[in-house]
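Input.
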Amino acid sequence: MPATAFVYGPHLQAYNPSDDAERPLRRELGIELLRAYGLLDHPDVTCHDPRLATEAELIEVHAPAYVNAVKRYSANPALAAEPEARMWGFQDGDTRARPGMHEAAAAACGSAVTGAIEIWEGRAVQAFCPAPAGLHHAMANRASGMCIYNDAAVAIRSLLERGAERIAYIDVDAHHGNGVQWIFYEDPRVLTVSVHETGRHLYPGTGGIAERGVGAGEGTSVNVPLPPYSGDGPYLRAMEEVVGPVVRRFRPDVVVTMTGVDPHHTDPMAHLQVTTAAFPRLYGILRDLAFDAAQGRWLVVTGGGYNIDLLARLWAYQLAAMLEVTLPEELPPAWLDMARERAGMAFTPVLSGDTPFVVDEESRRRGDEEGDAAVDAAKAAAGV
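Output.
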């Protein structure tokens, strides 16, 4: 069984760049369910309290002037009212300047870097880094999509600086992994693959199959944009028939994945129709791919997930897949009691629990058909 680094510290809860007051609780309940299931006590798990990413690590990815602006607005958010703040992404109504955001975002990046170093230096084969938010929308010189700094990109850059020759980044969040793609768009050492809801219907509006990379990086950006209401079939086909072949062909030293859970059909931030049952299969595909393509070296950073009744269970599935263990179907009663008390609501009591679809059968059928066509188009564009 490979050694698995679990990288988390309570200070990571400070990251909350929006008005989503529920975000810290969702993440806390996720961590507590991992603990209640005993996953953090597994003999192959080592727990790490991550440090902040250094300014030197941040400016390997982000423009120094942008980092300075973040620090300035972090110290005094009122300054973000100045016209210049629009250039840095802090006046679009989506990502707002908040006290301490520089330190909080640097901590999230530090979590991913800690996991990356544990893998690269051989103390772990894989790492699970459940930071309070996926930061894949952050650009080199601009905040975007509630993301200040880009944790996956900073971790990838740290691996390249330490001698990695090829990194494969796989983004399974419902939203296109635009920040990571554009940061490495010309870099042939980094393959970025994103399976997401099409930008014609969902933020950030990018991620078409024609976005393939440029210059030396041509062909190292691969996108599978799925239409709304695509379900398990097209989503898992994209993983098996597009993501798997292109990653194996690339032969990366490390696989980095951003595993947002918002493709689920109950998530309020997207329109895909992926069921709970598909996620263990997804995580198994990713685990097998990491072993096939990169000798098991697998860095996981978490991403979007806005259904408080769901996120903790899917995190449990994720870490269980990494450890190759089967969890009891019944959620631990003490965790259910704590979650109900903290959130003021009842939670689904079983791991695989799901709720009925809210869209009509015709929309789901059409979504699956159009989703299969989108997968076929992405296969052709990627040459697999």
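The mean pLDDT is 95.
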